[in-house]
């Protein structure tokens, strides 16, 4: 018999470890971060505790699955929707368990008047998005989702349809074709026109992150599903980045002293989290030191250019610059968060940089 429990944080955290096992590529956020994400008092994505719920499926003494249900009110208001969302859908390969979890999320959404349920969305303003539909053998970078091949089939069996296809990519930093991104003449023209890179240092990190948030909101304003990120939401997520950031591999582009573009990249902490079991313990300082000495993978969290400066080659220039900085700092590969199939410009840039597809993802939705 499948038992559904609400609000069991320990079971929610341990579910994917028990379901997928140690050898799976899955990597969990830190227990403390997951606790923050699931707290209405701390997560500014939610107005009240009624805006979300989380559930676990149990069979006897075994945790068999988990799921969240939530609303993103700013998204519904901006796009005129009545959508509920699910996230963190991790489940054993069992139709009974999947049905019990999804029914719980659907009932939660119906009770609030929503007419559609869509996911995965993993509970931050700049959410991890999607259900993996390809590339299952590839280990995820920080801020990338991983799930087993059977999850799409479990969703389809419950009437969910795949939509909004996306891809994540990986770049070999040592061999990246930065020349294919932007010719030297174009780079020189941008420098001659007064565009300059300004490094992100720890002393200026707070201001630079705020500059990056404003650039993010302006540069992504026309992207599908994008909702402007508030300062509270951005700082909530940046809190977990500050202790791992490597200032050498992020930068802001300025023109006449004003920020006009930004690229934020961080070291990939997933190998460290995997070794720690995503919990703080007595060995945490040793794992952190080892991580800092052996950083070889980086992640481009986002890059963007203010609309009035788009179309001039600043995005390729920033990527070429950051890849060069990564190479000098000893990084070997760089991953990126998802790019939607509809974003032709970003897909072309990834191709010109020599990026290879890493994971395939889709959203899965159902009319209630």
UniProtKB/TrEMBL annotation:
The keyword Cell membrane does not apply. Keywords: Transferase. Pfam families: Acetyltransf_1. The keyword Disulfide bond does not apply. InterPro entries: Acyl_CoA_acyltransferase (IPR016181), BcerS-like (IPR039968), GNAT_dom (IPR000182). One of its GO terms (molecular function) is acyltransferase activity, transferring groups other than amino-acyl groups. It comes from the Bacteria. Residues 198-368 form the N-acetyltransferase domain. This is GNAT family acetyltransferase. It comes from Ensifer adhaerens.
